[in-house]
Write a structure and sequence with these properties.
By secondary structure, this protein is mainly alpha-helical. Helices cover 84% and strands 0% of the residues. The longest helix is centred in the C-terminal third of the chain and has 33 residues.
Length: 98
């Protein structure tokens, strides 16, 4: 918590709200992915890309290393979701041919 001690109260509230909303959106989308809802793959990609764009925008003002770490993590998750989506689609196509 000492890292955030130099932040103003409003900045602390913003980061708390942002990280909470980021986590809640991801939990909801992961739950849909676990249920194999196909719509959840593009929705997850879109949500993550919007978060990444916003994080890069904020980074241009704050130069916060934490935003870069979060963005790199989100990029990894985007790649994993994209890879899984392609696998699910290819299996869906193969199953329809049988």
């Amino acid at each position: 918590m000492t890292m955030a001690s130099h932040f103003s109260v409003s900045t602390q509230h913003f980061y708390a709200f942002y990280l909470l909303s980021h986590g809640l959106v991801q939990i909801a989308l992961v739950a849909a992915l676990l249920k194999r809802r196909l719509w959840a793959y593009p929705a997850s990609l879109a949500a993550l890309l919007l978060f990444i764009i916003y994080q890069l925008y904020r980074f241009s003002y704050t130069h916060s290393a934490g935003l870069i770490v979060l963005t790199l993590f989100d990029l990894l998750v985007v790649w994993l979701v994209w890879h899984e989506y392609r696998l699910v689609q290819s299996h869906k196509i193969e199953a329809s041919w049988r």
